[in-house]
Amino acid sequence: MVRVRFAPSPTGFFHIGGARTALFNWLYARHMSGTFILRIEDTDRERHMEEATSVILSGMRWLGMDWDEGPEVGGKYGPYFQSQRDDIYGEYLEILRRNDKVYEQDGAIYFRVSREPQLIDDLIRGQVYRVEEKDFVIFRSNGTPVFHFVNVVDDVAMEISHVIRGEDHLSNSSKHVELFKAFGAPVPKFAHIPLILKTNGSGKMSKRDVGALVEDYRKSRFLPEALRNYLCLLGWSPKDDREIMSIEEVIQLFDLCDVNRNNARFDDKKLAYMNAAYVKSMPLERFLEKGKDLLPNFGGDEHYADQVLTICQEKLRSFEELNHFVSYFFDEEFEYEERAWSDLKKRDPLLRISELLEVIENMEDFSEQGLEEAVVKLAEEHAVKTGDYIHAVRFALSGRTVGPSFYKMIVVMGRERVARRLKRALSGK
């Protein structure tokens, strides 16, 4: 039976590397119909932050990672906070004492290593031999246990079958294997996943780097499924090189043998691309609901808001830019982009606006097709490009040079609103 765990220390925020480690554990558990355990390693009480635990739990839920055992869920191997497991650690310390594996020095308790080569049969790295040369502290002089001891004790007590963690923990593995053997417990299978490097590849991504915290993506209104999809590809990929995949597909395909040995480089541009792809493919009903929640003022006209959001979905890259992208639809006092106007002056924009305004006010077929036919006819009559009308009129209606489909925008705004804005542009106000 596969039993894996994610064991974060609540000493900061939810780092992207921790989220990826949690995800790989979760994926493997789901792929193998196993058990995914969340364990909070909060023995460092001087650095422990209560709010950080909440950030981790809410971040995991936001990313769609549920846990089978752990905080707020329970389970027969609890408690799942290390700060509540002192009695268990005391029992395991006695096992080491009985086997003459520990001694006290300067108030601290040291583990006596065998100094023999330890084989780490890693599912990703292959066979790695490590020798632990020095005895190491397992209880500080103040009586608190250290990471190496509690980590292994909890893995033994919770019957963890696979330890899936970052490559930076490989150096700890010889200590841990020594402890497993000292307890007479089976050594779990190890899988050390590649590190996540900064965008420029200069080193391991840290919590101080831009884009390193899960909370930042929540605040910037990224879609959790997009971030989760991207994290799946940091060190793993399906054999057919697909990128946009449902989580059900990833679970079906994910296996530790397919995880790369090479470090993964964080690519914020690819993440933005994937988020845009998810935004564009959202079911319309969900997109409209989320969009209206994020629009501070749409005038109470839900039908108009729905129309606006519908034509903008295909061009939107993230919900962070939603308000800026659609604000002019709901605000008659929008500002014009001065630099864009300077570029348009070369195309005699006021004349083009005036010509199309006259057509719009008198046309019978006020539809996308009718508008397109009218613009084409005007361009032929005046020997100019259709783009001259489109760019000038779009700017007059929105103050910008980019946006949703031009003809759809005009139809959604409606003849009266369009005419009013074009007259405003012609008046220079």
Q: What does this entry look like structurally?
A:
This protein is mainly alpha-helical and 429 residues long. Among the domains are: 282-329, no CATH class; 338-427, Arc Repressor Mutant, subunit A (Orthogonal Bundle). The protein is built from 18 helices and 11 strands. Helix 14 packs across helix 16.
Q: Do you know the CATH topology of the domain at 338-427?
A: Arc Repressor Mutant, subunit A
State the total count of DSSP E strands. Answer: 11
What would you report as the Rg, rounded to the nearest angstrom? 30 Å
Which CATH first-tier class of the domain at 338-427 would you pick? Mainly Alpha
Poorly predicted segments: none
Q: What is the CA–CA distance across the termini?
A: 73 Å
Q: Kindly name the structural category.
A: mainly alpha
Mean pLDDT over the full residue set: 92
Instruction: Return the CATH architecture of the domain at 338-427.
Output: Orthogonal Bundle
Q: Can you write the helix and strand succession as a string? A: EHEHHEEEEEHEHEEHHHEHHHHHHHHHH
Query: Per DSSP, what share of the residues sits in E-state strands of 2 or more residues?
Result: 5-15%
What can be said about the biggest beta sheet?
3 strands, antiparallel
The helix content is: 40-55%
The shape, in one word, is elongated
- Count, helices: 18
In the sheet with the most strands, the strands line up as 3-4-7
Structure described in brief:
By secondary structure, the protein is mostly helical.
